[in-house]
Amino acid sequence: MPINIDDWQKTDGLPQCVKTWGSQIKRVVLWIPTIIVHLWMMFSYYVYNMVIVAKLVESPHIKAIMTILYHGILTMAFWSYWKTNLTVPQKMPEAFKLSALELRELAEEEVPQSVLNRNLPIKTRTKSGKLRFCARCRAVKPDRAHHCSMCGCCVMKMDHHCPWVNNCVGHHNYKAFCLFLFWCLMYLILLITASLNWFTVIFEGGPKAKALPKESAEIPLMFFIAVAFSLSVFGLFGFHTYLLTSNRTTIESWSKQNFIRESVKGFDLGSFQNFKQVFGSNPWKWLVPTGRPIGNGVHYPVQYVNGELSDGLDSIVNGGRGDLIANNSDDLFETTDADDDDYHERGSGAGSISGHEAMRLLREPLNR
User: Fold this and answer.
1) pTM of the model
2) Which of 9-13, 82-86, 246-250 comes out lowest in average pLDDT?
3) Largest CB tally within 10 Å, which of 60, 85, 247, 291?
């Protein structure tokens, strides 16, 4: 049954002042998890440095090592956190945007000829075999892209919206997010290791516990919180390690990808190639949240059922065409940001499905 496009775009009829206040309240509420994270960091900083290192550790050499190690890990954790938080999802390429007429035709389950003529790099479709599009963003959805209601836009290779970083995790910041989990886990392990001995002394009681300064009473609280957080972060880090090495997102882990060609197995290129697709090929930068994401977030090589790849990994970096445009229309992928040279696609791989062929197949039944 066709969906009424007007129902998706109508407003709620509330006065503008109510909408404004509601928007401001929502913005404040969304920052609460971030505030909690920083309060925890402040508390753990105080207990680790001002209590354990300053008052309990006697050796100056051990004090220096613990201080340097702590601040090194803390710096990397904060760097990764704010990189994830502040990196804005990239803009939708102009080629995918739809006019009001095209959007209405798609809502009526018809693919406009003007959309077919664009030869968009589409490898996936809906479960019913239709073209994926977003009425709110007025655009055809690129492969692996999904609309985030919290961010109010379609996010390339969307993984999930994370309240703890107050941002969507996707193609634009997935490396930083994975590094945040890694350095956060290292930070928690450091806290647990540094406080375990003193926690044991306090827990057992006796003369040693009574001899400790009164500030030591906060060590058990930090220890319990660190253990609880570490279990959660360890599970999340393990899950995203699996997703990273299998080239899947959280959304894709619980929803099957429907490829236009049945011969396509998925986006998995092999564990190491999947890793490099996110972290790059330079080992010196793997543990540092620097650099731009590889590719434009639109084109991803695929693996076929017979084990062959549509493109090599360098097709993302160098603009290899693979399943992309067959008509050399490079201007289709210009974004509204003229400086985003990485968001252009070029090239055509031998024996692969062209953009025009992909759009034509969208008109055919799913089970051919």
Assistant:
1) 0.80
2) 9-13
3) 247
Half-sphere exposure of 341 toward its Cβ, with a 13 Å CA cutoff? 2
Residues 55 and 113 reside in one and the same domain? no
| Contact by Cβ (8 Å): 101, 237 | no
State whether 186 and 120 are in the same domain: no
- Are 344 and 333 a contacting pair, CB within 8 Å? yes
| Tokens read off for 234 | 């360890």
Q: Is the dihedral of CA 251, 254, 258, 263 positive or negative?
A: positive
From the list 154, 162, 168, 178, the catalytic residue is 162
Which of 219, 246, 273 terminates a domain? The answer is 246
Co-location of 242 and 253 in the same domain = no
Please confirm, yes or no, whether 184 is among the known catalytic residues: no
- Structural domain range at position 132: 94-170+249-361
Out of 114-118, 124-128, 219-223, the most confident range is: 219-223
Distances (CA, A) of 315 to 2, 88, 163, 309: 38, 24, 33, 11
| Residue 94 in tokens | 């102009």
